[in-house]
Design goal:
By secondary structure, the protein is of the alpha+beta class. It is built from twelve helices and 18 strands.
């Protein structure tokens, strides 16, 4: 069983509900935002899509996190309809989906959607979210080319409402439990797979759901790689290792994300001390320039001390988060993440700052970072776990 979940009374009340629900006002805000996008795009009906647990839009719009598939028909002034799979998922979908007529797709969901759109007299159909090519072809055969509104959906998710931020604070608190459990429980002789079990056993009892737990485990004296891996191996943790990790648990699709580095039964070597000190300085420098109106170049320039110290990065330096892996996705001076986005930070954005500082030969690296909230004058931490190069075992 994991440690206690640290929430204030307001967040604890949300967390303690049988199935938490956003307010009527918050759901109305979302539908109104979609209506504005539809009007701007010249579409009369919108299809919000989710397949195979991919896509966050259906949950954002209805409260039902897509399992196998779900398609929601949206049109101002018309009833909201969701066609979903599978039959044994239908009872819970009807309970969770807000202000939505939920129907079982009978393994022919897209055909039922097309039939309903025809009854509604749909002319120009827009879509958001993932949907298979074959189903797109069926829709376009019926209604002509679909208007791809996914970039508009991304824009709608960049700035969070106060209620969304509350839910992300719960996701962050759940994610914190994994770091606390690693500090408490990891010992030499455990496998990388067991590290993941430690994380999950910390937040699962509190309703946290795993998104990722990635680990870098390598000897400090002779490091072999520089960035956490997405699949755990059977390698056993040994004295003198460094462990760097990236962990995300979510609370009903609202996540935290935290990145920390540990040494195992040993003090850090001079190299890893320098790497970690540089990561700390880079985190402080980047968050030090974050506020409403910050440009992307200001962020990259702030991280320039990484290259000044003779290091680089492997993972992205920073990215938006919550509703997807969102803009701005930024690298550093020596490892750009593509062209700089033409945007500035806005108050209410939630971003992960994560300087994965590495050696130029890509043999050694550390992780440090966490989800933060952009404010008008600066930033606010979403996580409660302290920073530091922790010693385990």
């Amino acid at each position: 069983m994991g440690g206690p979940l640290k929430l204030d009374a307001r967040l604890a009340a949300i967390h303690g509900e049988e199935y938490p629900r956003f307010s009527d006002g918050e759901m109305a805000r979302r539908r109104a935002a979609l209506a504005r996008v539809m009007e701007e795009a010249g579409v009369d009906h919108l299809l919000m899509c989710g397949e195979q647990r991919a896509g966050t839009g259906v949950a954002w719009l209805t409260g039902w996190p897509t399992t196998t598939e779900a398609y929601v028909i949206v049109a101002p002034g018309e009833p909201q309809l969701m066609v979903m799979e599978w039959y044994n998922h239908w009872p819970l979908a009807k309970k969770l989906a807000r202000d939505t007529d939920v129907r079982w797709g009978e393994h022919q969901g897209i055909d039922k959607v097309i039939a309903d759109l025809r009854v509604r007299g749909a002319k120009r159909v827009g879509m958001m979210g993932p949907i298979s090519y074959a189903k797109c072809r069926k829709l376009e055969a019926a209604f002509g080319p679909l208007a791809d509104l996914n970039r508009h959906y991304v824009r709608l998710r960049l700035v969070k409402s106060r209620e969304e931020i509350d839910w992300m604070r719960i996701g962050a608190a759940l994610t914190d439990l994994a770091i606390e459990a690693l500090r408490r429980e990891v010992k030499p002789g455990m496998t990388e797979r067991e590290l993941g079990a430690v994380c999950e056993s910390a937040y699962h009892p509190h309703g946290g759901v795993t998104v990722i737990h990635y680990f870098l485990v390598t000897p400090m004296a002779d490091p072999e790689y520089c960035v956490p891996r997405q699949l755990a191996s059977t390698r056993k943790v040994q004295p003198g290792d460094v462990i760097a990790t990236e962990i995300t648990a979510h609370f009903f699709e609202y996540p935290g994300q935290i990145l920390r580095t540990f040494t195992v039964a040993a003090e850090p070597t001079p190299l890893f001390s320098r790497l970690y000190e540089t990561a700390e300085a880079a985190f402080d420098a980047v968050t030090g320039v974050m506020r409403q109106g910050t440009t992307m170049q200001q962020i990259v320039d702030a991280a320039g001390l990484i290259e000044d110290a003779g290091f680089s990065v492997y993972d992205d330096l920073m990215h938006g988060f919550g509703g997807g892996y969102l803009p701005p996705v930024l690298g550093s001076r020596s490892r750009p993440a593509g062209p700089l986005p033409d945007m500035t930070l806005e108050a209410g954005m939630t971003c992960v700052v994560q300087p994965n500082v590495i050696t130029r030969d890509q043999k050694a690296g550390v992780q440090l970072g966490e989800l933060v909230l952009v404010t008008e004058q600066g930033f606010e931490r979403m996580h409660g776990v302290e920073r530091g190069l922790f010693r385990l075992g």
